[in-house]
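Contributing new records

If you add data, match the layout below exactly. Sequence lines come first and carry their own label; structure lines follow with theirs. Keep one chain per record. Anything else will be rejected by the validation script.
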Amino acid sequence: ARDSIGAFDGIAIGSGDRTHPQSAPPAIENYFFLIKDRQVYADANPSDSLGVDGRTPYVIGDLFDVTNTCINDSSNDADSGNQCSANDLTNGWKLALEESGEKNLSIPLISGGNINFTTYLPEGGEADGECAPNIGISRLYQVAVRDGSPDIHLHSHLEGDTLSKEDRYIDLASGIDGGVTAISPDVGLAGAQQTKLGDQRPNTFYWRELDIDVLDNSPSTPSP
């Protein structure tokens, strides 16, 4: 991917204890992250200053916290009206999963500049009956790769509407959802909930085999 600073390899990943999905320890804060690796080319020597062994690993404080900001920013890094500049987002961003015990357990789907992912809230939702256990609910997020801002389509907003941080997500059914699956180029499915995906038009790529494919477009002369 690329922003106004340059190229990067982006890693979209969330935190959460898969082995204990019902846990909700108050001292644990989970996040969803977009991490930018600016060293996108292979190094001649991994021990060089820019090689894998020579880099200083990111810590969580190196990622910009977008939880309460960037909400109505545009996708244009040069937009002076944006709350979050490209420099703020140099290393990537983090988005707090704010509900008690909320955690990301599924693989995200990136489509058309958006990240689509689900979380599980062990203490969320209503029990089916007075004697029924509370199995929690899942939540669907749809946020921009650039800055974690909400996508207008999730809540059927229109261009120019003022959004809030709650527009980043919608609540799904009870239980743990398996994540978002693309069922067509512009439609995703999370549980029984359909959602509009970003532009997924295919790109055309060409390749050739050296000494086999001829690059000259002129018609060949038939042999006598």
